[in-house]
Fold these 2 entries.
Entry 1:
Amino acid sequence: MNDRVFGKVIFTQEAIKSRVAELGLQISKDYANQELLMVGVLRGAYTFFADLSRAVSLSIQVDFLMVSQQRVISDLTENIAGRHVLIVEDIVDSGATASFLKKALQTRNPKSVRLCTLLDKPYARKVAVDIDYIGFSAPDRFVVGYGLDYKNQYRNLPYIAVLEKANPNHAIA
Ligand code: IMP
Ligand code: MG
């Protein structure tokens, strides 16, 4: 049984597409003539990463890691020492995950570590974190789609929508 229902779509497919193109352009300018390793944070960033990496007009390299509750579940394959690293996240909420990740990667002596997130929830911040590239500022609501999940569902929606608790009166026991 599904205990959640959709609220409104807050970022349409078209809005995401045009914002991702802008971010790609900015990243391409900022890293021109530099070697860039884009690091996708699984699983939530997979859709954003695929689109953003193709909007970057540089010869980049890619790698992925998976984190959960401030622990690396699956680590990078690449050695990042001496390299420019751009972390690509789906959402910065409390800031705990992004802050942990930046610190963890900094200890490996990269040339630089920057952070790009599709969504930022500034009102939910508990741990301060500098974000270099932000797709959209999101309301302090639970959102799904375009990689973002609820119980590993809704990731394949091509847009981003608010997910609400279903009206308990309509719940099926
Ligand atoms: P943090 O609170 O900034 O550490 O975010 C932890 C993780 O919670 C993010 O990487 C997301 O996977 C997840 N998360 C936070 N807010 C949302 C949301 O609105 N929808 C889906 N996942 C979320
Ligand atoms: Mg996640």
Entry 2:
Amino acid sequence: MIVQIEESLGERALFDLIGEIEALGFEATQVVTQKQSYIVVTGKGTDDIRAIGHLKGVSDVHSVKDSYQLVSRAWKVKRTTIDLGDGVTIGDGKIAIMAGPCSIEGVDQVDEIASFLAENRVAIMRGGAFKPRSSPYSFQGMGQEGLQMFAEGARAQGLKIITEVLAPQQIESMLPFVDIFQVGARNTQNFTLLQELGKVDKPVLLKRGISGTLEELLQSAEYIFSSGNEKIILCERGIRTFEKAYRNTLDINAIPVLKDKSHLPVVVDPSHGIGIRKFVEPVALAGVVAGADGVLVEIHPVPEEAFSDAAQTLNFKEAQQLFTKIRGLESFNGQSA
Ligand code: PEP
Ligand code: MN
């Protein structure tokens, strides 16, 4: 159950309210975000939510039966929009394109891609400076130095950036350079990281775990929200199945289902979703038709030379064609271009 609290409620009255809810047999957790204060009510108390609705200081009560609450659509039918400033938004009806290399590799690479994106009206650049690699001997990313280079190059073109954070202790130094923190598939259930990202006032793009269910993804999102950050974007990036013909199995079903279960925006990552360059475009478009609010895609001036994920990375020509087709679909979906 979610209890919304009257804005004017003082600390003493809030303390009393929590006590009264607990006296009804519930557990009460106070959540304070950038936007509002809530009390999340769990446990087995009275079935009659009116008992809570009548308490002093309560502005609204919502019965949520899911294992996650604040990210559920059961209490918030209006969709969440992520506002990155300067007119850049995610989840407002337009399809957000986030494109860039798997890894940041150097100044020239950043500049070349940033100019390409600006010329093609793409407002958000992706790129990893801290890379989660399966092998400790693979390229691990350019680290903080790479992030600063990335932020400078992207900002020079007026672009926002999204980049992966691997560990809680990286957050503080990354904060001034990042517009969206990406939590990768290997960290979807790193609850300490999620809780720390709940304390920052920057959007978080949360990828689905490699073998994660949608319920687990939403519970992970709940960790971020309940720690204080409402600015969350969900990302379907493919899951591991028995199929070996491609890197992952992009679960198209996840897109409409997540949008039905949650008020958060949902984006699709076709690059990791299939892992094969020539199929990235159709899979990306399928994701958009399925209702994705955005596309996260890997591009590089010379994909064959990319330091990581070369096999799934689009060149500029392929990227341009994809952007055009995505924009064509905005009207198909009844969204405004
Ligand atoms: C990435 O975006 O480059 C990445 C590592 O993604 P994922 O966590 O989905 O594997
Ligand atoms: Mn990658």
